[in-house]
Target: Beta-glucosidase
Amino acid sequence: MFACAPGLPLPDGFLFGASTSAHQTEGGNTNSDWWQLEQHGAVAEPSGDAADSYHRWPVDIDLLAELGFTDYRFSIEWARIEPAPGCFSRAALAHYRRIVEYARERGMRPMVTLHHFTLPRWFAERGGWSAPDAVDRFARYVAATAPVIATDVEHVCTINEPNMVAALLPRVTAGGERPTGTGLPLPDPGLTRTLVEAHRAAVAAVRAISPTIRTGWSVASQGCQAVPGAEEVTAAYRHPREDVFLEAARQDDWIGVQAYTRTRIGPAGPLPVPEGAERTLTGWECYPDALGEALRHTAEVVGEVPIIVTENGIATADDRSRIAYTHRALDGLAEALADDLDIRGYFHWSALDTYEWGSFRPTFGLIAVEPETFLRVPKPSARWLGRIARSRTLPSAR
Model:
């Protein structure tokens, strides 16, 4: 059922890897805004040591390389690099530089994400993205990452899921629960404008560091599906939540797609998950076709900008379900490639079972992490997906 071949050969240079983020894996990120929220009870469960990847990152890279993956997407932590305004840690920069170098030594290409949800505490206390000089402060930080990204890094992601940042940040910082169902709040228009401006400033800063780095950002797909008669409502719902962020990427080197599930839209707005539908550990509908649909919608909006799948996966305790979900998602990717969509890579979320912004319960990882000893154990899904990465051939539905 899950054979890797015959199938569709991947294009030359296609990126095939797994993703992580700093706060979710490193542990001990004490100078970040999220750590402070955790300590004040704003989220259900604190991150603590997470997966201790701040110390165990060589093991993570070794495992991914041995499994057959060719690429590794990880984020660097602004709160560690700039722990106080204008004070840049040479030790933190050297730490992240070593990750880049080691990935290259193991034959893996690093994709570096500059901002993955968390902020330095001092930046958040000054108003975060709402502060008048937020864009300048972010651009200054990006410029300071030159020792990490100037060489050996071909792809940089400026901001992870800016549409989720603009929608959820006001609620999270107010101490509210992060929504897990349908009907995400509308992205704050002011934050949206600031994040687009910050992205453009970051792209300019990265290009000043090295014009050969290909720069973009990743957008969370809303997976909007209109029920009959709700097409106009669906378009109005989707545009501020997704399309405005895709439109901002039309001059970029690539656009990242992050797809997990769908949102069904009726005449009055988002509908609940269909009765009887399988749900994941996040409460989302298990809907693997979300990836293929997201790729096609993104291509319609961005035009000729190359696409990279920067996240796709499922929160489940049943690894057979992970394989089945990912197999169907890769079918959608293969079909999009066969239809000549310019897709340059696929990164699974996530490499490890990690901290999922308030809980360790939703397990997305290809690699299990024992919480007491931090022992890493690759799951069957990791070996299955690694074989696909090594074969450079996608399972094909055609």
User: Anything to note?
Assistant: The chain is about 40% helix and 15% strand. The CA atoms of residues 280 and 315 lie 6 Å apart. The two ends are 14 Å apart (CA to CA).
